[in-house]
Amino acid sequence: MLHGKRILLIVAGGIAAFKSLDLIRRLRERGASVRCVLTEAGAKFVTPLSLQALTEDRVYSDMFSLTDESEMGHIQLSRDADLLVVAPATANLLARMAGGLADDLAATVLLATDKPVLAAPAMNVRMWTHAATVANVETLKKRGVTFVGPNDGAMACNEFGPGRMSEPLEIVAAIEAMLVRDRPLAGRRALVTSGPTREALDPVRFISNHSSGKQGHAIAAALAELGADVTLVSGPVAVPDPTGVKVVRVESADQMLAASLEAGALDIAVCAAAVADWKAARPATGKIKKQAGAPPPALELAPNPDILATLSKAGPRRPALVVGFAAETENVVANAVDKRTRKGCDWIVANDVSPATGTFGGERNTVHLITEAGVEDWPPLGKGDVAMRLAGRIALHLAQAGKKQAAE
Ligand code: CTP
Fold first, then answer.
1. Which domains, from first to last, does the chain contain?
2. Which of 27-31, 40-44, 157-161 has the highest mean pLDDT?
3. Which of 270, 307, 330 to mutate to test the pocket of ligand 1 (most atoms within 8 A of CB)?
4. Most buried of 35, 60, 127, 324, CB within 10 angstroms?
5. Which 3 state secondary structure label does DSSP give 377?
6. What pLDDT was estimated at residue 406?
7. Taking 80 as the threshold, does the pLDDT of residue 72 lie above it?
């Protein structure tokens, strides 16, 4: 997560500039704010309007514009950022940076900055391997510029080799590695379950639910950001895999339980999955066919294993902190308090999933955290913020528990 981080993205003129649009989206998803400087050549590949729409900010390109300078001078642009990201970094812009030129707004900002700089080169393979570029990159590395990529691969110019700009998620991972240093969960192993499960009725039909996996995936990402070694056991979801997390994909509750036990996370387990409570007692091996005139087939159900309860009662294999979720539509807190005792977990994150709240599949969540100490009502937050706050609480709890143990 990159909450509150401010990225100044410099987009130079290369075909890879189209990937910068996705990069902006992914940075904003993680809570960063992004402001763009677009070079004249960059504007031949992406329009200022696209960047403006994605950043929800104006785009800076003209050093000699009175409005640009009075609203946001080149010094202020870098002062207001935590990190400058050059993506794509073309051979030309790298040469101008190495030479200390200040011949446009991008080069001037890069010369005037005292902030860390990350460059994602993108160019033809011959330009990347040319002695001039090699020397420029060496010079910039010595001055503290960090590089991500380029990757090997087919290029727009029909050649193959190093020169392709890194994928947006690789650039995001490099940004996170530079900006997120505090890793209180380093050395801890965490399991997160997320998404729905699917219980087969026959080879083509299943029972499932509306869970999107957004909250569980955000928690996995937040724990990883704080340094934990995270295994995310996920049912079928459309949300992308979080970076820096081991993802195990499953379909049924039985598979989710097996993968969760297999993960062997002895420090933290967060069960955010909406596990189907029942499965077909006898799933058909072939497709169930309609019989003319016959009544619809009766569905006989059998209970699924309870993953949260199993982990909570796993004896020596029990994770030190087990956190469950309670999706409720009425008496949210009372039901969740009861669920905490019934399931034997340490904490419960309770949320109201009535259709009117838009929680299922939505971006926001209003939760109550139920711990051994009582009930906390959290304000309405984005799912990323809920995840970060929960991960922070988990880190604090484990640190305090560690201190207590050391004192005993
Ligand atoms: N859970 C689980 N395995 C199950 C059912 C639920 O691990 N088979 C976990 C969920 O991941 C969540 C918590 O248990 O952390 C509560 O899930 P919820 O569906 O709200 O509760 P239920 O157990 O279904 O209870 P109820 O039917 O009373 O709402």
1. 6-179 (3.40.50.1950), 189-279+301-407 (3.40.50.10300)
2. 40-44
3. 307
4. 324
5. strand
6. 81
7. no
